[in-house]
Amino acid sequence: MIAQKNNLSVAMFSVLFGLIVGALIMLVFGYNPISGYVALLGSAFGSMQDIGGVLTQMTPLILTALGFAVASSAGFFNIGLSGQALAGWVGAVWYALSFPDMSAIIMIPSALIIGVGLGAIAGFIPGWLRAQFGASEVIVTIMMNYIFLFLGNDILQNTMSKNIKESAETTKQVGANASLQMKWLTDLTQGSSISAGIFIALAMIVVVWFVMKKTTLGFEIRAVGLNPDAARYAGMSAKRNATIAMAISGGLAGLAGTI
After folding, report:
1. How far apart are CA 192 and CA 94, in angstroms?
2. Are the beta carbons of 248 and 70 closer than 8 angstroms?
3. How confident is the model over 22-35, as pLDDT tens digits?
4. What is the pLDDT of residues 24-82, one digit of tens each?
5. Which residues are within 8 A (CB) of 172 and not within 5 positions of it... i.e. 6 or more apart?
6. Average pLDDT score, the chain
7. Residues near 206 by Cβ (< 8 Å), separated by ≥ 6?
8. Which residues of 40-72 are buried (b: 16+ CB within 10 A; e: fewer)?
9. What three-state secondary structure class fits 165?
10. Can you give the pLDDT at residue 97?
11. Do residues 85 and 256 lie in contact, with contact meaning Cβ atoms separated by under 8 Å?
């Protein structure tokens, strides 16, 4: 309980400190901090459309934050979440555009699975390299971000069929069979781009919490992150759990990209 209170205090202090620093910067450049923060709150919560826009932006951030948290619990600093999200993004879009007539009941779950799988593979590689050879996951994931960026561009420009592209640089929009948008949500938020992805993201918070706090796998991942030597002495495989943690982390990022 004390630790939870301390964590809450640190979070609140961090927010307050950030607001103070932001106000000082605005003052230095001749702006009114109060007017700035009022405008900030108004643009975020001024209308249902604004709230829908905030929730839309929140969705991938929630999932990538969850991915970072899982990797961090295992003692990894996963700086490759953007590349892992891009892997899931490109793969899921390519798949969805390639089968425009597939029913939504099959398309949406399978596209999500493909995106998660590609993100998990992208996370597994640096995790495995760290576990087997001691390679720095920071360096590997930074390099892999560029690999996925250039690979994604090459797939778009040179591999995707012309009938799913608008131009050499852009694909067509995915069809209704692959969209997570829901009419009642769009109407509720006055035409914002919010989708059912926000519900998936919120559900994943519960899933990740349960896995990390209530399962043997989660306990082993946390134990490896806190003290790999002690975990190994207790019979846990530090390499296996570290690699699994990075794969889960990448999978969550891939889900963010897919949504």
Report:
1. 25
2. yes
3. 999 999 999 999 99
4. 999 999 999 999 999 988 988 889 999 999 999 999 999 999 999 999 999 999 999 99
5. 97, 164, 165, 166
6. 92
7. none
8. eeeeeeeeebbbbbebbebbbebbbbbbbbbbe
9. strand
10. 95
11. yes
Q: How far is 60 from 93, CA to CA, in rounded Å?
A: 16
H or E element: which one contains 157? none
User: What is the rounded distance in angstroms from the CA atom of residue 219 to the CA atom of residue 93?
Assistant: 35
Domain boundaries, the chain: 1-46, 47-258
Q: Which position has the token pair 């209308």?
A: 47
Given a cut of 90, whether residue 120 has pLDDT beyond it is: yes
Question: Taking the chain, what is the end-to-end CA distance rounded to the nearest angstrom?
Answer: 35
Q: 201, 63 in Cβ contact below 8 A?
A: yes
Burial annotation 24-35 (CB, 10 A radius, 16+ → b, else e): eebeeeeeeeee
pTM of this prediction?
0.90
